[in-house]
Design a protein that fits this description.
Helices cover 78% and strands 0% of the residues. The protein has 263 residues and is an all-alpha fold. Helix 1 (2-19) runs parallel beside helix 9 and helix 5 crosses helix 7 (165-176). The chain is globular.
Amino acid sequence: MYILLIIVGILAGIFGGLIGTGGCSIMLPILTFVIYHGDPTMLPVAIGTTLVAVVFTTISGAIGHLKIKNLDIQTTIDLSVGGIPGVILGSIVFSYLVETGQLFTLSFLLGLVFIWPSIRMIKEGIIKQQQRHPQLSNIPRNRYYKAIFGFIIGIATGIAGLGGGYALVPGLIYLFDAPVYLAMGTSLAAMIPLATIGGVIKIYNGVVDLYAAVSLGVGTTIGAQIGARIIKRFKPHVLKLIFGIYFLYVSLKYILLFFGIHI
């Protein structure tokens, strides 16, 4: 199984490096529906294991993007300042849902967090909308707004274990007018403290398969470097459309799992 997880990690790292999500949106559904066969009792473990694995990916991917200058350091700091208290709060909510047996509620929440980025990415992928500031070397807008945005992302990260990249990338693009590639690199860097703190809390809570997390982490570390290097060979609207469709499918799987339906 661990060889399979390393392969999954490599693929997740490549795709995560391409769209700046750390590969969590690839790994979590595979753990949930393939490795754990859609068993809702294993959902907390899938979430915790994914978040720990994302730590490897974000560090590797962020280094790759930093080398090719796809990273806004100041925005990374702003997002992290707000995100750290947010991920702690989100982890408390996660623990409450697990302790009270509200696992299907957790599945439903996971489905909801995938909907917005999927719809926006599909829309942008189809109409090929051009950004107003495609050549910016930094991400505009007020630093306090970025910290508030980071706080919200942190809460979602603590609950859903997705590292925040699924919302950070489209949020930076659509709310802060960030160029696509810069949003991807900055997202990975900002996720490092969020994933690390969230992962440590989930290890403490006993909902992490460390062997699986390390196997995925080894794979994603390799894959993220590949993804960061080949990113500019792909047109942004194509990436948005492909992953928007994937996110929509994942969203439906989690929401239907809430109702006991498997697709």
